[in-house]
Every structure is written in structure tokens, then in C-alpha cells.
Amino acid sequence: MSNTSKLFEIGKKVDPIMTKYLIEGASEDFKPILLHQIEAGGKRIRPAIVLLSCEAAGGNPEWAIWVAAALELIHNYTLLYDDIIDRGELRRGKKTTRAVYGDAMALLAGLHYREAINKLINRSPASYKLHELISQAIIELTEGERLDILFEQAGRTENYITEKRITTPSWSLYLDLIQKKTASLLIASARAGAIVADAPPEVEESFSKYGLNLGIAFQVIDDYLDLFGKEEKFGKEIGKDIKEHKLSNALILLALEELDYKNKEKLLSILRKESSAEEISEGIELIKSTKARERAINFAEERVKIAKTAINFLPDSNAKTLLNELADSVVKREV
Amino acid sequence: MSNTSKLFEIGKKVDPIMTKYLIEGASEDFKPILLHQIEAGGKRIRPAIVLLSCEAAGGNPEWAIWVAAALELIHNYTLLYDDIIDRGELRRGKKTTRAVYGDAMALLAGLHYREAINKLINRSPASYKLHELISQAIIELTEGERLDILFEQAGRTENYITEKRITTPSWSLYLDLIQKKTASLLIASARAGAIVADAPPEVEESFSKYGLNLGIAFQVIDDYLDLFGKEEKFGKEIGKDIKEHKLSNALILLALEELDYKNKEKLLSILRKESSAEEISEGIELIKSTKARERAINFAEERVKIAKTAINFLPDSNAKTLLNELADSVVKREV
Question: How far away is chain A from the Cα of B298, in angstroms, using its nearest Cα?
Fold first, then answer.
């Protein structure tokens, strides 16, 4: 078995408990709506990190199963709402919950998800601390989503959004954004494992550093794949970020640094309008003409190194090896 | 000071702590969006019930302040989402959060509300039990909202909704609906006070009964006021339920029981289409021609009696007197 599928098998362990808590207390007619999102698949990376972090920190991963299931549900909870906000029709090649059942029902499903998460956390050892941890993470995710919307260069007409729109972002603002929208949940995952293992604060901090750098690398590679991935492998439409007017893509930002005035304006104009497939390809070609791809990959590789170094002090274990391999797999998935 | 304003003063005590937890961890640009909903006013009934129940059960209400604030935030959390689902523009005479900031930002605000609630509960004594209590209540509220949508006779095109629509509801199905959409949060409020007071299970059960019957009475009177209230006093548009095609109004259901075939079909047809103000008045007249008003008020008064009887065993106290008066005020607000 490859290590990727080994990681998937570990993360998958939460599925029965996640499903059980998700449908608990729901009416028969509501259950299909609730199950739609989690049955759409996913790599189960977050629960794998929780379980492995717990074990690598010297804890018994069996005690981390509830919070691991909660972390996977939080991820799906945010996807449900992302699709409402972005009017998403497809995800992982399947119709989204809102596309099948409508926005109102998808929204209600999200409310129910949050309570399943709450019950899972309440069931966990160290529940008090875990409640604080995940509330913090969801608050950051929410702010990340707010910033992500403001990074869009067109497509929304609300006054608040057009007034606050971020049109000339710095790299550090981008890092702030992806730390919130992506890394925060990986930080919480790694940290949750350490908390259940009752690890000392400095160990928890090291896991936090692992999650942070893993999350940043993950998002930068995701941005890469959005523009240069293979559609069938990536499971998402290529150039979706351009189509959705998102300036919050590392490669677009890096390319804009390099392009001359004329080409920079051209790329920005493609982002600002409802572009055709041809224009999107043109935008991708412009990015290709710069060193953005190389720089993004170097940046992500550097972050993976930092993530691995952060947990290097741990005694050798199977779990530690898998956490290192998980970090490596983030960058490897692009080639 | 009248007892209504005394109750309001008690409920208002949570405002500073509610605001503090709500904006904690939020960026400056997000705060106005978060504050909009709670600054729109409200009678603060739920926190008043929490604080009074705690005191009437022999506890110190100072210890119930966090969960009281949480209950008021839960109420506002559901209003935020109700307005998204019903495309509401006005509430309590003010523009809704979604009307000012758009659906996407209102949705993100809701996510943040839920975490403020979580932190408030975590801060409370008996937090483990309170987490379970409020998750249960929110799950019921969500199911209540789902049923409420299915009680609508027109206005939504999603397949799921048109297929599952409830066109011939029974009174018991209506009671199930309002128990979930309205009473569940009043049950949780009364129960939360008893939990913080560390009251024995049978006392908690009595408070639950108080909340249930109060909630049912409250919703039936709300349905009455929707059709026969005075706009400026009620703070809502008259006939909104008819306009929104809602068959989930006690008075409409009671009237339908009495009307002859022709008038029954007429009232239903008004509910099923986009009706003019004139047609809405015509519908109200049809309801007026039956004994629905009288029956609804009798029903609500009966429920208020049951609510008061449920807590009658408690030793006399100022808090008990106010809980009784709060119950009475629910029916009194109609005259």
C-alpha cells in the first residue's frame, strides 16, 4: 500500500463516527441533505493529522477519534458554506449540496453540522480546551473567507464588498489570508492531537508550527494546481480562480510582480471581467511566461521543510514518519 | 416601573457581555456586520428567562450571565439565517444584516455568532451539560425552520421543497413545528437557568414544561398578531405570513377547519399566489369571519396557565413572580 493510501486509510477511520453524530437527532427527510456533502469524498487529511499527531505526541489515538471526526466535519461545514457563497455547482466532480437541494436547505444543513461538531467535541477528552481551539479556528476561517471575498476583483455588487475590495495586495496580506482560510484548520488538527495526548505546551506549539507551514504549502500548491493541474487528477475545473476573479492565488500575485505594465494590466483585466475559456488560457499563458511556477514551488518546498523540522525533536515512530510523508505529499501532488 | 420594563431591564443585563464575546477576535472591518443584528433591538426575553429561572431555582443569577447572553445570541443567530432564507429586508423596522451587507457577509456573520455562543457556554458553570442542551435546541430549531419552509405554499422552486411541501397539515403537525421553531429555545432558556442553579432533575423538568408551554403560547399569539396586530406596535408588517405563503399560522389553520369549501379554497388560493395588499386583507377578513381568533387566544391562555402551574411548586420569590408575569405578558400583548 502506498503511503498516500495509508494516510487515507487512517483518516477514513473517522467516517462511521462522523456519520453517526451527523445524522443523530435529524429527521428522515433531512438525513440525505446532511449526508450529501460528506459522501462527496475528500482526502480525510485533517482527521489523519489529528490521529497521527496524537500518536506521535505519545497519546493513544483511540481517544482522539471524536475530535478527528469533528475536524473533518468542520472542513465539510466550511465547504457547504463556501459553495453557497460562491454559488458553486460542482465539487469533486459531484453536484454540491446547494445545487441539489437549494441554498435554504444547504444553509440549514450547515447549522446542523455545527451542532454535530459540538457534540463530538463535547464527547472528547480535554473538551474544554478543544472547544476553545476549534472556536478560534472557525473564527479565523470565517475571517479568511471574508478576506477571500474581498480579494475577488469582480462578480459581486454589494456596497460593502466593492468598497473594501483589495485591489493591490501584498504578499504578506496573501499569507495572512491563507493562514486563516487554510492553515488555521491544519493548525487546529495538529494541535488537537497534541491536546488529547496531554502534551506539554512546547510540544503543542511545535505541532502548531507543523500545521501552519503545512497549511501554507498546501494552499500555495492548491493555487498552482488551480492553474496548471490536470483537471481529472485535481478534481476541480482548471482556472477556476481566474473565472471567479480571485486575486488570492499565489501564482497570480507572483506573476504580477514580474510582468511589465502592459501584460500586468492584461492579466488584471482578465481577472476583472467574465472571461471566456480562451481568455482564461491567455491569462494562464501570461503567468507561464514568468518564474511564478518555480518560485511558488520553491516557496512551498521551503514551508514543508520547516513543517518537518518543527516535529523533528519527537522520538521516532511510525506516526512521525507518516506526518513527515504527509508533509512531503503536499508538494509531490503537483508533479 | 412596569413589569414589562422590569423584565426588559433584567434581560438587558447580558448586553455588555454579549457584545464583548461577539466582537472578540473579529477584525475591525467585520465588527459593524456582527453588531448590526444585535443592535436592532429585541425584547431580551430569553436571557430574562435564564436569569429568573436560575434565581427561582435557588441559584445565583450572576453565574448564569454567560449562558443567558448565549441564549440571546442564539436567538439572533437564527434571525440572521431566517432573513437569508426568507430574503428579509426589514426586521423590527430596521434593515436586516443581509439587506445592508449582502447574503455572503450575513452568512459569515452567522458563523462567527455560533463561535461567540460556544465561547460563552464554555465560560459557564456546568458547561458540559449546557453544550449538550444548546446543541439539542439548535438542532430542533433547524428542523423547525426546515418544516416552516415546507409549510410555505408557494415562492420556492427547489425540487426538494416542492416535492416535500406540506399542503394539508394537521393541528398536531403545527404544534410539532412551533415546538421546534419557537418553544425549543424557551425550553433551553428555562432549563439553562435550572442547570446553572444545580437544580435536581425534576425541577429541571418543570422548567422545561414552563418553557414549552410559554413557547407554544408565544407563537400562537405571534401568529395572531401577524394578522390582527397593530403594525407600529408589533414592529412587523401585517399579513407577512400570508405574503410569504405560510400555512404555518395557527389562525389560518383554525380558520380552514371552519370555512366552507368555497371560502377555504379562496383562502388557500390567496396563500398560493403573489397576493396584493387587497387580497391579503380579503384573506384576513375570511379568517375574521370564523372563530379562529377566539379559539387561538383561548388556546394560548390555556398554555400560559399550564406554564405557570408547572413552576407553582417553587418557593415564593421575586423571580418566581416575574416568571409568572412574563408568562401572562405573552397573551396580554395582543390586547
Answer: 31
